[in-house]
Amino acid sequence: MHLFKYRGDELFAEDVPVEKLAEEYGTPLYIYSYNTLLRHFRAYTDAFNDYPHIICFAIKSNANSAILRLFAKNGGGADIASGGELYIALRAGIPPEKIVYAGVGKTEEEIRFALRSRILMFNVESADELREINRVAGIMNIKAPVALRINPDIDPETHPYIATGLRKHKFGIPIEDALEHYRVASRLKNINVVGIHKHIGSQITKVSPFVDALKRVLILMDKLSIQGVNIKYLDVGGGLGISYRDEEPPLPKDLAKSLIPLLKGRRLTLIIEPGRSIAGNAGILVTKTLYLKRGEDREFIIVDAGMNDLIRPSFYGAYHHLLPVIRKKRDTVLCDVVGPICESGDFLARERELKRVKHGEHLAVMGAGAYGFSMSSNYNSRPRPAEVLVKGREHFLIRERETYSDLVRNDRIPGFLR
Ligand code: LLP
Q1: Nearest one of 103, 33, 18, 67 to 374, comparing CA atoms
Q2: Catalytic residue at 342?
């Protein structure tokens, strides 16, 4: 449930008209709803209330410092995928003892940074990485807390680009090799085995893949305990889907209802790493209509947001609802809504039936709060959009729009070209 709703014919972000925000801050503009973010975060903490747990928000879905601070203030942790995300998380006030670090390609520098920061654990994705963490921890004369990321070979039935838990994927350690890897890990001098991790994919719209994957991991844990490997943290990853079009994904409470009974009698701290299900429907991207153009078999609505601002439609063929910021009684047309970038793949919607829009009118791209701004780029040398957080009647700029000078800030012209 989100708080971007029409009042009459005007779209509101909580108690503020979106049109007003678009006028004040300009477009393209990301707008987030504070109360939606909080509600979605609390849906997790309430659902898992009866079991020791940490909600580690997946920062890759939205790395804005203000949003991370919001979670930090409410007891949240972070799932990170890079040194940059660690930096942002710590700076936003997320305690290191609530930070877990996954990713197949951690560099020595990143490992050092995480060890120095005393994060909760590394979610290790290969034997090679395990040896490297052991080596670096040895130099620093400390023990690195690790979980092994297990690939349980479960099909999450989602888009192939965002499935991660199948045998063919680069992620994690195949479940059948896990015992051996744990044996090796527990013998390494500077490794402290504390956990087990799995993450099977994203935008999952059923509970069953989570249940099946957890069952497999629990069988492994039983075998580990016979071998004397004691797991304290069970990290089940993220992946719960949201409704972009007409999906009806389970809620955190449905997930909790299915998972917690499986954990009865085990003394564990559960870690959950949601990203999209917290931030996705808590944000929209507002864009302005620049031009209209009649193509051979469809109309083109040319808007000021491009694939550099929101890449999901181009990259995954993802569907996002497009809503007029001010509803008008107009006829419907079949159209492509496209951005200004020099690529045919630059579109927000294809072959979409939309009410006619006119030059200068605003459209809201719904469900843009996760993997929206965080995947944006400067392609075509476009400054990235501003981000605004709305709380009731109040609104706050939480990231300034980039300027032209930001685009060249890190460029250097060598002396011989001066
Ligand atoms: N934990 C790990 C280890 C992950 O790799 C991810 C996402 C998450 C948690 C959070 O998953 P979520 O709850 O958000 O589904 N860019 C794609 C999604 C890529 C997801 C990558 N990993 C998209 O726009 O759909």
Answers
A1: 67
A2: yes
Domain count, the chain: 2
Which CATH number characterizes residue 378's domain? 2.40.37.10
- What percent of the chain is helix, strand and coil (3-state, nearest 5)? 35, 25, 40
Strands 283-294, 362-365: pairing is antiparallel
Answer yes or no: is the C-beta of 236 below 6 A from any ligand 1 atom. Answer: no
Candidate of 40, 44, 60, 198 to mutate for ligand 1, largest count of ligand atoms within 8 Å of Cβ: 60
CA distances from 171 to 163, 175, 200, 277, 324 (A): 10, 11, 9, 21, 40
Q: Is the dihedral of CA 129, 65, 242, 48 positive or negative?
A: positive
- Across 54-69, average pLDDT: 98
Index of the ligand 1 atom closest to the CA of residue 239: 15
Last residue of some domain: 222, 239, 274?
A: 274
Classify residue 333 by burial, with Cβ atoms within 10 Å: 0-12, 13-18, 19+. Answer: middle
Which pLDDT value is given to residue 295? 85
Q: Answer yes or no: are the C-beta atoms of 33 and 3 closer than 8 Å.
A: yes
Q: Are residues 263 and 339 located together in one domain of the fold?
A: no
Domain assignment present for 197: yes
Examine the domain organization and report whether 216 and 101 are in the same domain: yes
Do 226 and 308 belong together in one domain?
Answer: no
pTM given for the model: 0.97
Task: Please give the residue range of the domain that contains residue 201.
Answer: 95-274
SS3 state at 383: coil
